[in-house]
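User
Class, as today's exercise, I want you to study this protein, comparing sequence with structure tokens, and judge whether sequence predicts the tokens.
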Amino acid sequence: MTVEPFRVFSSAVVPLLADDVDTDQIIPARFLKTTDKAGLGDSLFADWRYDTGGAPRPGFVLNQPGMAGRRILLAGANFGAGSSREHAPWALTAFGFRAVLATSFADIFRSNALKNGLLPVELDPAAHARAAALVQAEPDAEVAVDLAAGTVTLPDGTQARFEVDPFSRAMLLEGTDELGYLLARADEVAAYEAAHPGRVDTTAPVAG
């Protein structure tokens, strides 16, 4: 997988401050038949975003004026609970999100997000509350995310720190994944294998 490498970026925020948003709410099960990420952004939060006839619900945040193009989702606690579907980060990135800010994430969602170019930023409750208050006061205010430094800069200039495991951080900064990491080091892998003959002859007959 090749994605846009992470650099410092700023964006206005989409506030969706509900807790326990699960993966079936992020991308309902009926959209899981596809293995193609293209178009999944249209199905993001589909049951909240559209009525039963497919018309947009005016009150839902993604349907409000000015939300298109925003790259940061501000969520509540335990974001991404539920099933292990990779379609959840696929749908979020297909819509255009690069980062989700929350006080906590479901572990499997966090792992899937990091493997699919979406940055889960876990903020401490005080920083999260401050971000929510600032965005509520000025909906078009921008937040800056710096993965290399591990900081989020809020609209008032205050900074909050966050942690990402070093390998995932490196993959996001490089714009690749585990497979891309290995392929980029194919010569090193081949040299190692050549210098370390197999200890087991897999062609030998099995003892009876």
